[in-house]
Predict the structure of Transcriptional regulator, LacI family.
Amino acid sequence: MTDKKKLTLKDIGKALNLSVSTVSRALKAHPDIAQETIDLVKKYAEEHHYVPNLLAINFRKNRTFNIGLIVPELVHHFFSTVISGAISEANKQGYNILVSQSNDILKDEEKASRAMLNSSVDGLLISISNETTVGEHLKEFLDEGKAVVQFDKVTEQLPTPMVIVDDFDGAYNAVSHLIEQGYQRIAHIRGRIDVKNACDRYEGYIKALEDASLPILDHLIKPCIAITEEEGYQFTKEMMEGKNPPDAIFCITDVVAFGAMKYLKEKGIAIPEEVGLVGFSNWMVSRVMSPQLTTVNQHGFQMGVEAAKLLLDMIKNQDIAYQETKILKTELIVRASSQKK
Amino acid sequence: MTDKKKLTLKDIGKALNLSVSTVSRALKAHPDIAQETIDLVKKYAEEHHYVPNLLAINFRKNRTFNIGLIVPELVHHFFSTVISGAISEANKQGYNILVSQSNDILKDEEKASRAMLNSSVDGLLISISNETTVGEHLKEFLDEGKAVVQFDKVTEQLPTPMVIVDDFDGAYNAVSHLIEQGYQRIAHIRGRIDVKNACDRYEGYIKALEDASLPILDHLIKPCIAITEEEGYQFTKEMMEGKNPPDAIFCITDVVAFGAMKYLKEKGIAIPEEVGLVGFSNWMVSRVMSPQLTTVNQHGFQMGVEAAKLLLDMIKNQDIAYQETKILKTELIVRASSQKK
DNA sequence: CTGTTAGCGCGTTCAC
DNA sequence: GTGAACGCGCTAACAG
């Protein structure tokens, strides 16, 4: 590796017999500087491939042009889509993105956020872990005067703007669609009780049933803990083998629906004829299952873009107090698994 | 609420009537400093939540404790798995990871790498785009004396260490497995001719046929350009409708195999009885298809870990010249789509 | 043992 | 128009 000495303002000054400050000003075409000087300096800089030392600039201005992004899981279709959107927007505005994951473990999230807080980041985009409730480590960010935007999995305990999906509405539409298709005994394999998204979807489910004057049956509501295929399989088995089994299942997410589908197929129960199935999130898997899974698309890319925009706005206008909550509409994607008619 | 302004060494010095340098040394328990002083300073720093200004440190030491990571696509099961591994290892060693994507477009890759080069990164992990051949923008990294490690999609034009999968071996095993199952006319929907991975897999395919004394049939070898489901569908259609159709298809990747499967199912061609199918990469979709897809697992997480380790080794021992190439073995995952017997 | 001094590269006074 | 000087926070060489 060749150690190429980097050109500095001082070097240029020496070469051109100018002072450092003149060179500095010339490069940004300061009005005080003579046009000839400006041209001269710019030409020299160009020819010798002068690159300003970002480290020095950042140090002086106390900012890094980096923003942090923490998600529960990186290997996850929805989250990677969000990240993709955030990176796209950030890059457009001249920022880079530092990515970390919490694995849904509070300790890991704290470690990641502290690692970023130590001045390597101007602001933070975060989707909190299942274990995060208060978020002391995130308050540290705010205390330092750094911008934070929450997205998707959020907590109201933290006074920051957020970008979320209209989970209530998405669930409501999904369940209403099932009802419209003629299903009457609709089960819900839901998420954790302490997670906002899961609750919103649950509420949407309940509301849809109520609006259609369908009874709410407690034994058809099952709570996942880890949100896995296995849970989907297990709960479906329990319900189908119990009495008064459901004729449709609305699952908190596509993987869970896959577990449910697996059980139904094993038992030769026809989808959608005997049991209808709807997932949530529009993972790539939902298109690949057979029958293809009806699901709720969350526009992850757009969420990433919006979250990044919001954060960068805040960073650039420190004075403004943002408290905005952007709610993105979902889109029901109807496929074979729920089309009885 | 903590103090709004950050505590500096100078502040501590003033408060304790010590010089800045003494404080600095005390905090790192320099042997020259009296134990009492060390204790005193440390206690004060602790109580007042002193956090060293990383920006200043980095500026002075000319490094950032960040490493860059560029992949063709972020929303991609394999790559996100690699990233996950790289982040895990980097964090362990006190580094953060800056992520960007090229979308398989050379221009985007150049932009991303330049954005990172500008002193926001100590080294780079990259999986090059389909369009990258020479990699002038990557040479700039090397010229600046920054470490670069290539992984998965690499070019030999660039003298850097790499971490790759044994694509040849993986393909060889996959095709040998098909042969063992009794398939005789094995097609290959391959990747681009100018991409190394694709060629290695192709070679493995050829070698397996040769070793089994099976003929190589040109009309059963089809080259994808964009590596999509549509191409898989189209090529399979062409081959199945042409004369001397294949009785098995080895696909460059799982999505392509999904396209192939889609066509076969539409036409009522039985998998694996009439046509066997094998993919590559072990995406989550491969488990969800029905029949489940036989595929080649690439140990993405491990690849990320190895690549990060290599890069950090280089960063930490600037003097050592690394030219290592780590080749990770693959693992054939046999599922229903290829089990004729 | 501890303090003084001298930068790192840049931008921003304030003089001339 | 331009230059000199200072400081951002920290480290390291050199004194004492």
